[in-house]
Amino acid sequence: MYKFKGFYKFGDISSKIRGKVFVNKMGEIRVGKNLSIVGHPWAVQITSTKGATLTIGDHVYVNAGVGIAANKEIIIGDHVKIGPRTSIFDSNYHRLDSTDKGELSKKIVIGNNVWIGADCTILPGVTIGDNAVIAAKSTVNKDIPNNVLAGGSPAKVIRELIIEDGWVRD
């Protein structure tokens, strides 16, 4: 078991951590119950910088090689599955050129019952709606509505999904 120094709350005892998980906590990190992280064969890195908030809901699965970095705010809903080697960063970290005066960090919201495939990149300012599926290798740079399959680079809606009330992905 690796040391999770500085977590404000780390769910309940049914959370499962396997492999290497690196936590850089200068901001706030809140984790719900039944979090499962697989940190092998690639380590998982979770970061919250000073003044930032990272909130991870209940029953969330984080696969190997995932990087999550909150510089402002990232909210991950309940029953979310995140595929291997996915990156979720709410900051661009630096300006593109001298005329770029926009915010470097923008809030990311990932809804409930979302499945994010392998090798995806979730960029600053994005909201992914409830029950959405993000296809593998996608780059999400704009909001994705509820109940859709989206994919590509940049990600676009491919089709609507039929989701019965109360249905949760296994």
- SS summary, helix count: 0
Q: Based on DSSP secondary structure assignment, what is the total number of beta strands? A: 18
> Uncertain spans, ≥5 residues at pLDDT below 50?
1-9
Alpha-carbon distance between the termini? Answer: 25 Å
Mean pLDDT: 91
Note the main sheet.
12 strands, mixed
In words, what does this structure look like?
The chain is 0% helix and 42% strand. It has strands at residues 9-10, 16-25, 28-31, 36-48, 53-56, 61-62, 67-70, 73-76, 81-82, 87-89, 108-110, 115-116, 121-122, 127-128, 133-134, 139-140, 148-152, 155-160. It has 170 residues and is mainly beta. The strands form two sheets. Strands 2, 4, 6, 7, 9, 10, 12, 13, 15, 16, 17 and 18 form a twelve-stranded mixed sheet that branches. The protein has a six-stranded parallel sheet with strand order 1-3-5-8-11-14, with no helix packed on it.
Would you kindly provide a brief summary of this structure?
This protein is mostly beta strands. Helices cover 0% and strands 42% of the residues.
